[in-house]
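To whoever is on call:

I kicked off a structure prediction for a single chain this morning and the downstream step that reads the tokens threw a length-mismatch warning. I double-checked the sequence; it's 209 residues and nothing unusual in it as far as I can see. Pasting both halves so you can look.
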Amino acid sequence: MSFRTAPTIIDRTYEDVYPAVSVRQSTVFSERRWLLAKRTSVGLVVITNLPGMGTVAVLQRRGIWNFEKGKLESWPGGCQVTAHGGVEEGEDPLRTLQREVGEELGDAMRSVLFEDDPKLRPLIEVDRHEGEKEDVITYAVKVEPDVFKKYVRLSPDSGGLSFVAPEGVADIQDLRTFDKAIGVTDLRTIAMFEDEKRAVATAFSHFGV
């Protein structure tokens, strides 16, 4: 198992975005392991500012029912990054990220992040976790608070949003220590998988928080 946490700035142009994604970036994705048997997931950490809270990372609570899979959600009440999902066969990870943002945060938010001038909100890679059965690539972006408030529309699967400030990252609990079926019942508790917690910390660090 290996980890890479150094942020990578993703340089996008209008030709690079949805629906035809061709990304120029310093990290070479020629090793397209997400097309092989091993599962790959991608995630996005949104950093924004909230009145009375300052700079925060936006986390999404896992709901009770997964409508896409048609079954109960695992670790309900636990937190994950702002948007997260699996790469489908033949799909590029950044295309997956665009699709997941549209499904979980709404098409308007997807347009803001991927169809506006990319220099307004540069997308960076903040973590890559390579496991035996799954690779997870996590990106981050900083969004103006009025934009986030105006455009975000959560999916029915969502358990709602939670927010964590930089000083609260150390207190995030390991979600795997909770029962997979019962999950997190006290919503004052923030629990995440370790790679997602690490991605949040790296995102804060990159944006100088």
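Update from on-call: the warning came from a stale cache, not from the record. Cleared it. Sanity check on the structure: The chain has one domain: 2-206.
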